[in-house]
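FAQ

Q: What does a record look like?
A: Structure on top, sequence underneath. For example:
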């Protein structure tokens, strides 16, 4: 049977119901499911700052007085927001992977005489492949994870750019003009007045993007990553004694119900954190939320 966590799991046919479930839920495949949950949480933890950074850079570019930067920022926002997310996961990742392999192929395999594009096939030398076929499994997993972070960052960074750009425009111009009247440079006005105040306008939209990011994590399977939806479908399907030590009927409804609870609980926690942040940012601000807090404390 392989390694078992509990000593009484050596013979599943003799187990009572509680012991059977304890053994069943700690099999190697279920450990894969638990690792997948950790992978999703790690992805969100790493991707959120990337999305925020790209969103901030995109918004700064869009509002830039330099024409080329403004066009780049506005184009990035418009193009990415206008294309379905799944299209980026199906096309962008493949294109990025092939671009990287093409660059490595040109640098490492200069004696290669055959065409790279052979019909529908993209063929490069072994040394140019990413990752190398001889690489350890964890390298392949890390490469897929890095592509996922990059793709999520590009897609949701455009939405964050649009939100932050709108939040910057929502800050009253009179406050910016007052800062300039006191002798502040444009950079000082930007970092000391505009940026601190624009977060109160940006947070609701950024909170919605965070929820969308959570809901988009099942798209990881398009990148070859075994996510929690993959494991729920795999483990929940009917299993017979011929293929497993723990045969059972179709449990997919229960596995997907567990995923439903997981995502709803995570969303609820996120909303609670967002509400607290919103209260903190509104404090002392000339917004409806800030004025309501001032009246409540008066």
């Amino acid at each position: 049977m392989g390694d078992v966590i509990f000593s009484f799991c050596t013979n599943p046919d003799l187990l009572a119901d509680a012991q059977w479930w304890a053994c069943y839920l700690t099999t190697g495949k279920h450990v894969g499911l638990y690792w997948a949950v950790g992978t999703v949480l790690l992805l969100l933890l790493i991707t959120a700052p990337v999305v925020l950074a790209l969103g901030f850079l995109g918004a700064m570019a869009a509002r830039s007085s330099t024409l080329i930067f403004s066009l780049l920022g506005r184009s990035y926002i418009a193009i990415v927001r206008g294309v379905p997310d799944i299209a980026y996961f199906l096309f962008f990742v493949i294109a990025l992977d092939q671009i990287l392999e093409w660059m490595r192929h040109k640098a490492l395999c200069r004696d290669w005489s055959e065409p790279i594009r052979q019909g529908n096939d993209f063929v490069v030398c072994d040394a140019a492949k990413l990752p190398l076929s001889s690489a350890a499994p964890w390298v392949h997993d890390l490469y897929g994870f890095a592509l996922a972070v990059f793709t999520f960052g590009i897609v949701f960074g455009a939405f964050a750019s649009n939100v932050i750009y709108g939040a910057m425009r929502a800050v009253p111009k009179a406050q910016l003009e007052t800062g300039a009247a006191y002798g502040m440079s444009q950079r000082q006005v930007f970092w000391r007045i505009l940026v601190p105040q624009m977060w109160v306008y940006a947070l609701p939209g950024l909170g919605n993007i965070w929820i969308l990011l959570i809901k988009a994590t099942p798209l990881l399977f398009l990148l070859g990553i075994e996510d929690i939806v993959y494991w729920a479908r795999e483990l929940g399907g009917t299993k017979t004694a011929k293929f497993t030590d723990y045969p059972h009927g179709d449990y997919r409804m229960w596995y997907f119900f567990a995923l439903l609870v997981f995502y709803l609980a995570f969303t609820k926690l996120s909303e609670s954190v967002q509400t607290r942040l919103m209260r903190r940012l509104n404090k002392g601000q000339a917004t409806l939320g800030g004025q309501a807090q001032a009246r409540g404390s008066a």
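Q: Is there anything notable about this one?
A: The longest strand covers residues 117-118.
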